[in-house]
Structures are given as C-alpha cells and as structure tokens.
Design a protein that fits this description.
The chain is of the alpha/beta class. It is built from 9 helices and 7 strands, in the order H-H-H-H-E-E-E-E-H-E-H-E-H-H-E-H. Helix content is 39%, strand content 15%. This is IS5 family transposase. Residues 107-263 form the Transposase IS4-like domain.
C-alpha cells in the first residue's frame, strides 16, 4: 500500500454518507440501558476487515477498535435482514447510471465454484472439485463488468438454472429521467447456458440471447464480450472471505457477496470522479 493511502476497510466519509441513512435505528432502552451500543461506522469497518482479510470472526483484533467479532457478525446479520446491502447496491447503481457509466447494450452472465468448508444450506458436491462440498457464485454484469445482481447456490447446481432468476434479480435502476432501466438489450453466456428452452424465456422478457452452442468449435468471438464477467469474479474473489465459503449460514455468505458487489460499484464511482 502506498504511503498516505487509506486502508480499504476504513469507511470513508463519502461512503459512510451513503450507508448511514440506510441503517436501521436501534433506540436505547430507557429501563435497562446497559453499555452504550458500539458506533455503527466502527462495526462496519470490522465487517469490511473480515471481508477483505478472510480472518475468522473470533480472531478480529480488539486493538483495532472495531468491537468483537460476534458484535460485527450480529450487525452484518441484522443489516442484511433489514435489506441494507441490497439498497446500498441499488443506490450505487443509480449513481453510476446517472453518470452514464452503465452500458445496457449487453449483459454477461456466468457462475464460479467456491469450496464450502463447513457445509450448510446452498452447498453440494462440486463437479469440478472431486465432489467436495462447495457452493456457486452466480453473477450478471453490464457490458463493463459492473455487477447488476449476484446469487448463491449449491456447487452441484447447473448454471442455466440461475439464468432467469438472475435476470429477474436485476433491480430497477434509477438515476435518469424516465422509467428505471432493468433489462439489457442482449445477454451473453457460454455453452453452459445452451438450452433453447431458456433462450425462449430470455426473449420473452425482451432480451436477445447470445449464447455459445455446444458441439461447435471454440473461437466464436463471444469471448471478447464475456471476459468482463470473469474480471468481475476476480474482483469478487479478491475479497478473501469470498474465495472460500466458511459460513454455515447461507444468509451470512450472501451478505458478504452483496456487500462486495456494492464495494466494486463504489470503486467504479470513485474512479469516475477522478477522471
């Protein structure tokens, strides 16, 4: 890290200004106040520290001032239940859309396996990892690789089963005059999505499917468009907590996945401001 550069898990004023209004207000009890609730901004830095470093919750260093690992875990759970991470992602997408940074001419979809060390819901024998227990991250991005939606399934689920659910998971993106944008013009995918049944379903929602066909030679040229989703997976798995699934509870891992998508959008937004 360069001298003077802020640590990535420290929440900047600009990011906090976007997150704070989304957090639920927890009033103090008048009859049994107890210890004062730890500052939300510090706890969020603790959550980001775990996301970036992959450190177990119980080993979160107390000297950082972010609270205990259990405190951070509870806030992550509660904020996820309150829809904070989804609303944050939607608001950042709206800012990117307002800045003209989203290219809706095409979207790209793909899946990526991760090992699930402790099992739990949404896990299964991975066909690419000697049937070890794993999960899959599914991702749909716009033309530049900005995440529009992500989901989690068992490692044995076929990618194509998440094609329509991921399209439906793309939120209405505001930020410009007129109706919110939700559907790309075309959708690019690899041979794993080669089913005419699903092509018809994609066309039914107003999107043109561009999907490689099985049995044809490689070199179709679709890779020049599909590589952006691979880049986005690399960015997601740069967060060490997402490289391997350590959470038994699927909602906690999904919370990390949604938060990471928001951080990627936030970085794109900051880069626009520097241009």
């Amino acid at each position: 890290m360069r001298r003077g550069e802020q640590l990535p898990w420290i929440v900047s004023d600009e990011l906090w200004a976007r997150i704070e209004p989304l957090l639920p207000v927890v009033p103090r009890r008048a009859d049994h106040q107890g210890r004062r609730r730890l500052d939300d901004r510090k706890v969020l830095s603790g959550i980001l520290f775990v996301l970036y470093t992959g450190i177990p919750w119980e080993f979160l260093p107390q000297e950082l001032g972010f609270g205990s690992g259990m405190t951070c875990w509870r806030r992550l759970r509660d904020w996820n239940d309150a829809g904070v991470w989804q609303r944050l992602h939607e608001s950042l997408l709206a800012e990117l859309h307002a800045a003209g940074a989203l290219d809706w001419s095409r979207a790209v979809i793909d899946g990526s396996h991760v090992r699930a060390m402790k099992g739990g819901p949404k896990t299964g024998p991975s066909p690419v990892d000697r049937a070890r227990t794993g999960s899959k991250h599914h991702l749909i991005t716009e033309a530049h690789g900005i995440p529009l939606a992500a989901s989690l399934t068992g490692g044995n689920r076929n990618d194509v089963t998440q094609l329509i659910p991921l399209i439906e998971a793309v939120p209405p993106v505001r930020g410009r005059r007129g109706r919110p944008r939700r559907r790309p013009d075309t959708l690019y995918a690899d041979r794993g999505y080669d089913h005419d049944k699903y092509r018809k379903q994609v066309r039914a929602v107003g999107i043109t499917p561009v999907i490689a066909r099985r049995g044809t030679e490689h070199g179709s040229g679709l890779g020049v468009h599909r590589w952006v989703v691979e880049q986005s997976f690399a960015l997601l798995h740069w967060f060490r907590r997402l490289r391997i699934r350590w959470e038994i509870r699927d909602d906690i891992h999904e919370a990390f996945l949604s938060l990471a998508c928001s951080i990627i959008c936030w970085r794109r937004l900051k880069n626009l401001a520097l241009c």
